[in-house]
Amino acid sequence: MCLGIPGRIVEVTDANSKLAIVEVGGVRRPINISFIATDGAAPDSCVGEWVLVHVGFAMSRIDEDEAARALALLQELGEAQAEIEAMRLSEPV
Question: Does 83 or 53 have the greater pLDDT score?
């Protein structure tokens, strides 16, 4: 299963190599935007776009509402995982 994490492109660092910086939950990481910068527009036009990021690549563009829903779901899954882990580590009844 592949999991894409929503992030917003905040800067293009190398237009020729199609490299950019994405922000995910306040953390900025370098990514490759080759998959989304293919419509003939300048790579800089991707700044501000929401994308799904997987293994350092922006896989597809998404709208802000879809990004918000995905981030909320990922947060819920993280909270559920923390509850499961706490139960696993607790003393048996």
Answer: 53
What DSSP element (H or E) covers 11?
A: strand 5-14
Give the span between the Cα atoms of 24 and 4, in whole angstroms: 11
User: What domains appear along the chain, each with residue ranges and CATH number?
Assistant: 5-89 (2.30.30.140)
Q: Which of 44, 46, 43 is nearest to 62 (CA)?
A: 46
In 3D space, the residue among 23, 49, 27, 24 whose CA is nearest the CA of residue 36 turns out to be: 49
Tokens of 13: 């660092």
Sorted by sequence, the CB contacts under 8 Å of residue 29 that are 6+ apart come out as 7, 21, 22, 53, 56
pLDDT digit string, tens, across residues 18-36: 999 999 888 999 999 999 9
Side chain identity, residue 65: D
Which of 35, 39, 73, 68 minimizes the C-alpha distance to 54? 35
Map residue 33 onto helix, strand or coil. Answer: coil
